[in-house]
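Notes from the 1:1 (GR / supervisor)

We went over the backlog. Supervisor wanted to see one worked example end to end before approving the batch request, so GR pasted a single chain during the call. The sequence is below; no edits were made to it. Supervisor asked that the structure be written out right there so they could see what the output format looks like.
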Amino acid sequence: MKLSRKVPLNALRVFEAVARHGGFSRAAEELGMSQTAVSYQIKLLEEHVGEQLFLRQPRRIVNTETAERMLPHLRSGLEQIGDAMRAAGEAANETLEIHSSPTFASHWLARNLGSFQLAHPGVAVRLKRVSKITEFSRDPADIAIRWGVGPWPDIDCHLLGRFTYAPMLSPALADSIGGISRPEDLLKLPIIGAQQSSWQRWFSTAGIESPDLSAHTRYDYIEQDLCGNAALAGQGVAILNHLYYPDELASGRLIAPFNHPCSDDIGIWLVHPQNRRSTPRIRTFREWIIDAVAGDRARIEPGPSQTAGTGRKDG
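Structure output shown during the call:
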């Protein structure tokens, strides 16, 4: 049953005005109704509630206990309805500010935001790369793209994916050691970001338990986009997400020599304040990015994720 059939919404609006003004005449004037119509709406509401709401006294009315109990909840509800209407009427060109982990910002969002803005030309987007956790009480972001295990308390969290990753390198670097045929061959090359736990995870699932990577300290990067740039420059082999480097793999600028993708319990999440979940620009972007990332994963990732393990740094 529709809400309008359960609850006499117009009578509630009339009731709040009568209680606020302390009389029918001023409420009728505010609402553009006759006093007879106001009285009728109050009678309907009293029948619905089953209790008297006002005591009629000479030249004034007094709220009953029932009315006093109802009013705080009703006023809060009317304020929320007003907020919803204002949100629905937000200016179409209002800016959506997105704070994103660095690699997702540069290697997925920046490449795909054009399709969002073509579909929603009235929504202006401001994208900011951030390495720290966005605090919505302090930072001006509408939404954030966060890399981690999640979900987190006190915010709305939407998992975009736990993406597959694998060792990737330039073909010239592979040729420099006569090609890559076994996982052990990777240890002959500089390992970029060797401190990342995803390296141990990948080697373990490839049959090499706990390789010693302590000597690989030259390219001690955390952010994945820096690891990827170093790999493209032929400086070493990096462990990278397939989602971020499809063009480089398709063109041959990078190769992933083993058909052995991994994943772990680290994911990319879209997060935003709970009280803003219905804001139109946030809702529109949330719906778009969930579908867009899912579509890219289905098209790009090489196969089903492996058993989850422990995490990596930076999405």
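Supervisor's comment: The two ends are 45 Å apart (CA to CA).
Batch request approved.
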